[in-house]
Amino acid sequence: MANDLQIYTLAIVLIGDFNPVIISPFWLSGKGLIREEEARKAKIELIHNDVTRYELSWAKIEVTQKRFEIRTSQEPYFEPIKDLAISIFDILRETPITIMGINHLQYFAVSNGDTYYNFGNKFAPLNNWKDILNDPKMQSLEIVEEKRKDGLNGKFRIRITPSEIALSTPYGILIHANDEVGLQKGEAGKDREIIKQLANVWKSSMERTNKAVESIWKKIN
Amino acid sequence: MADLITIEDALIKPSVKTNKPVPEKDIIVDVIKESVKKRLEKIRENLTETKVFESTISDFEGELESPKFSVPSDNESYKYFVHTQRWIGHVEEIKHDGFIAKLTDLSDNTTYEMGEFDFDEVSPEDMPLLTVGATFYWSLGRANENGQIEKKALMRFQRVRPWTEKDYDRIVDRAEDKFKKLKWN
Amino acid sequence: MSLPEKTIAEITLIGTGGGYGESIVAHLGNHNWIVIDSCRSPVTKESLPLTYLKNIGVDVAKEVVLIVCTHWHDDHILGISDVLRECLNAEFCIAAAHDKKKFLQLMELDYEKVEIEVSNSSTSEFQMCLGILTERTQEIKRAVQDRLLKTISIGSNRKCEVYSLSPSDYTLRKFDQELSALMENYQSAAKKIPTGTPNSKSVAIFLRLNSHGVILGADLETSKNRNEGWSCILDQSQVLDRVSSLFKIPHHGSENGFCDEIWNRFLDSNTISKLTPYNKKQKLPQPDMLNKYVELSKELYMTTLVYGDKPKERTKAIDKMLKKMEYKVREVKFQQGIIRCRIDILDPKATWEVEPLQNAQKIEKV
Predict the structure, then answer these.
(1) Is B70 part of a structural domain of the chain?
(2) A166: chain B residues, CB-CB within 8 Å
(3) Number of structural domains, chain B?
(4) Which CATH number goes with the domain that contains C143?
(5) In terms of residue numbers, what domain contains C230?
(6) Domain total in chain C
(7) Cβ distance of B86 and A76 shorter than 8 Å
(8) C193 within domain boundaries
(9) Residues B92, B35 share a domain
(10) C115–A83: do the CB atoms touch at under 8 Å?
(11) Nearest Cα to C90, choosing from C38, C32, C44?
């Protein structure tokens, strides 16, 4: 089933107090965080006090006053987006950041309808709904781990929905894992606490998500 | 995905208010200003007041998630690169025509590998980063660029922010702190 | 595998195939053990000397009395914090620079890079050791030339002693200069500090087991400068008072680790030698050196004979790509080999009983 994976998008989201106008492509290349050529070729949508949004050849960045996001759908750039997020907020050290989410969006193109519908049936038995709804189908399933395994303040959440992106078959499934870490007790969010956590949990977030997805598919098959 | 206003779109629509031709640059500025204004209004509608330092995680549910992407339209470019084999490499030796690196498989952190690479694997802008001790990411896999599948190898040297005096001061202070606590015989 | 008797000395060399380090565990009588260096299995991540000791039934918390870290290289220090943590009764010994503050600064500089995966694993290990030692308010013993690190009494005026033969004073002063250079050259956040040669700071060990002698060469090399390396030991050491019959060959049997004079003056004609291979950028030992050691020794043993030339096994698609694009990628294989040597401490005429275990082998002439 892992072979049916067609798109893997990784997005890092930070919540805090940001100044969008600073984080422009030329600011990044000026600090040596991206190549100059990449800054020159960036597709800039907007750079403004309220919102900045642009696309590099390998990542998309969007910053509002409360939210920072960087994402890529190219696996070779998963570590570079992590490095970039860490470096930006190492330089902008005083930026208050209170929560981060590492989002793993894995899009699978399932070969047939039976497997597709079995997915929903497996995790939310549709027999329970047949007397309530006509021809029920699962549209969205979300399960949350309220207390993280690693003891950090935060959650781990998995949501399964049909894919909204057209894939190579009509039976696309999105498994979205949201790995969320907040401030720990006694932390105020003004001393890179969340950025340190980003570095600390990165590997385990990747491993955990891949194991979770593998386990989900095993249960289907 | 948000609309992207192109210069060509702006030029196609002359002003309707007068019969006099409007200078090109004014049309462009008007169109951009209009688009920015609309965008800001939209954003302001969606922004909520939050007390950042006193909030709990549940206040941000939804915001922490990456919004789902709209289906790429026919005009829009997309690049996906999956099922890659990825390594993190550390340069150990530089030769006259290439370099040798220790490679750690990012999906299998058991045994490591040694790799030999030519200089022409390295992007020109990354060449100044190629020194003994430098870190790079190396991937092999299948890229899908606008529907075209291509086998690709990709090497990118790690870029992190340079350290400042404050960083060194912090390092020295930490070392000093540890030194005081240690006993040597 | 079983525990040695109280008066049986054991010197066991653990090797990993040439890329994952080596370690020595030694029994000095009366259930007193020492651990010299540590290495980890890349698969299980366990400290191999610790696993060995536990497997044969050693009470590591009580019976390990000394841990020596011969030098700050990944292949000699990984897992040493686990050893220190579990061996509650053990003293800890390293070769530290004269300028200990600067040494710690370099450690901190490297440790700062952990977040971006550029630091050396050895630094993290060392930091953990410092944490444990601080918590225990335990002293760190410094290994210097001709220092007595441990004495074990085995009754009736008989004893076993552990001496560090190196590094020399000159080497330690040079280390201070190296530290400054390392800090200057590798202060960039994205550069990994190399922990390679020279190996002159390596701690070579001499064991006096009542009337028997053992030289453990670590990675110490020869040098043109007679103030460092083996030359310095030969010229200046006061503790090498006898010929030894067991020799752990230094620096993976390299030419740089070979010293004629040691064989002529401090090793007897019936010496049992053992070594671990090196299998990273260069392969050691080379065949000519191997033959030399075979000729010099009564018996020569090597922990493994692994020289891998292929990349790791992966999916067909990736294997194909590696081949088609002609990438030279070679796995550094892990294979554990153990060479256990035991001798009766009380019998001056006793000879070593050698047991090669797992992948270890006796070497005949190539």
Answers:
(1) no
(2) 71
(3) 2
(4) 3.60.15
(5) 8-185+200-324+332-362
(6) 1
(7) yes
(8) no
(9) no
(10) no
(11) C32
Report if residue B162 sits inside a domain: no
Q: State ipTM.
A: 0.91
Residue among B90, B103, B163 whose CB faces C192 most closely = B90
> How much is the average pLDDT of C31-35?
98
Please indicate, yes or no, whether residues B147 and B104 belong to a single structural domain of this protein: yes
Cα separation, C24 vs C31, whole angstroms? 16
Q: C116 and A196 in contact by Cβ < 8 A? A: no
Whether residue B151 is found in the same domain as residue B84: yes
More confident residue, B161 or B29: B161
Residue B102, domain CATH? 2.40.50
Q: Which residue pairs from A67-71 have beta carbons closer than 8 angstroms and sit at least 24 positions apart in sequence?
A: A67/A13, A67/A14, A67/A15, A67/A18, A67/B63, A68/A13, A68/A14, A68/A16, A68/A18, A68/A23, A69/A11, A69/A12, A69/A13, A69/A14, A69/B66, A70/A11, A70/A12, A71/A9, A71/A10, A71/A11, A71/A12, A71/A103, A71/B66
Mean pLDDT of chain A: 92
Same domain assignment for residues B38 and B106? no
Mutation site, C41, C327, C333, interface B, largest B CB count within 10 A = C327
The predicted structure's pLDDT at residue C180: 78
Give a yes or no: residue B66 inside a domain: no
Neighbours of chain B (3+ CB pairs under 8 A): A, C
A13 touching chain B per CB within 8 A = yes
Q: Strand C64-69: give its sheet, edge to edge.
A: B183-184, C139-142, C91-94, C64-69, C33-36, C22-27, C8-15, C337-344, C353-358
Provide mean pLDDT across the span A166-191. Answer: 89
Q: Phi/psi at C15 (nearest 5 deg)?
A: -120, 165
Within this chain, do residues B83 and B41 fall inside the same structural domain, yes or no? no
User: Nearest-CA residue of chain A relative to B74?
Assistant: A166
Q: Which of C50-59, C121-130, C135-144, C187-196 has the lowest mean pLDDT?
A: C187-196
In a domain, C3, yes or no: no
Cβ distance B100 to C187 less than 8 Å, yes or no, reads no
Verify whether the Cβ–Cβ distance B64 to A74 is below 8 Å.
no
| Higher-pLDDT residue of C2, B52 | C2
Question: Measured between CB atoms, does C134 come within 8 Å of chain B?
Answer: yes
In this structure, are B152 and B98 located in the same domain? yes
- Give me the phi and psi of C249, to 5 degrees please: -65, 130
The tokens for C67 are: 């841990």
* Cα–Cα dist C23/C280, whole Å: 18
Note the pLDDT tens digit of each residue in B118-144. 999 999 999 999 998 899 999 999 888
How many angstroms away from the CA of B176 is the closest CA of chain C?
Answer: 7
Q: Do B135 and C190 touch (CB under 8 A)?
A: yes
Please tell me the predicted confidence (pLDDT) of residue B95: 95
Q: How far apart are CA A3 and CA A168, in angstroms?
A: 13
Which residues make beta-bridge pairs with A89? none
The whole-angstrom distance between B3's CA and the closest CA on chain C is: 36
Angle at C280 between CA C276 and CA C283, to 5 degrees: 60
d(CA C236, CA C173): 17
Q: What is the pLDDT of residues B135-185, one digit of tens each?
A: 999 999 988 888 888 889 999 999 988 888 888 888 889 889 888 889 888
Residue C195 lies in a domain: no
Chain B contact set for C130 (CB, 8 A): 178, 182
Q: How close is the nearest chain A Cα to the Cα of C329, in Å?
A: 18
Given a contact cutoff of 8 angstroms between Cβ atoms, the answer to whether A171 and A113 are in contact is yes
- Measured in residues, chain A has a length of 221
Residue C318 contacts B where some CB pair is shorter than 8 Å = yes
Q: Which chains are adjacent to chain A, needing at least 3 Cβ pairs under 8 Å?
A: B, C
> Which residues of chain A lie closer than 8 angstroms to C315, CB-CB?
none
* Residue C115 in domain: yes
Among B140, B171, B183, beta carbon nearest to C109? B171
Q: Which residue range(s) make up the domain with B91?
A: 79-157
Nearest-neighbour CA in chain B from A119: distance (Å): 20
